[in-house]
Amino acid sequence: MTDKENTAIHFVNEQALEVLLNLLANEPDATARKKLIHRIDQIRNRQREEAAANLQDRTGFLVDLSSSLAAVIAERSSADSDNDINQILKELRDLVGQIDDLVHSEISDPDGI
Questions:
Q1: 10-13: which pairs have CB atoms within 8 A and are 24 or more residues apart?
Q2: Which pLDDT score, from 0 to 100, does residue 113 have?
Q3: Between 20 and 30 A from 13 (CA), which of 5, 37, 52, 59?
Q4: pLDDT tens digits for range 62-71
């Protein structure tokens, strides 16, 4: 699933939660409230599962990226020129930046909700 699709699904789920919470706040019937609470829990659980799957995808991407970078470094390990060394350092900085972005996104929204 693309990021756009994930964002759209997340938005729809958020809207559904908002509607259900409003209904819950105004529902006098205990049985109806229990059903609403159950539905809210289902949506939240699905969001957590989707967030976990997205994290696994991103982690897999970083593992692949790390492997590729290790291969590039091994390939260039005999590099003597400053340009080759600078290129390796640039690639390492890019990798660190991607890992940093991933960690910050998980810290700011660990459940993806």
A1: 10/47, 10/50, 10/112, 13/43, 13/46, 13/47
A2: 47
A3: 59
A4: 777 777 777 7
Domain presence at residue 113: no
11-29 mean pLDDT: 85
What is residue 113's DSSP assignment? -
The parent domain of residue 59 ranges over 3-108
Domains: count for the chain: 1
- Is 91 contained in some domain? yes
Distance CA 8, CA 24 (A): 24
- For residue range 58-96, list pLDDT tens digits in order: 777 777 777 777 777 767 666 556 677 777 778 777 877
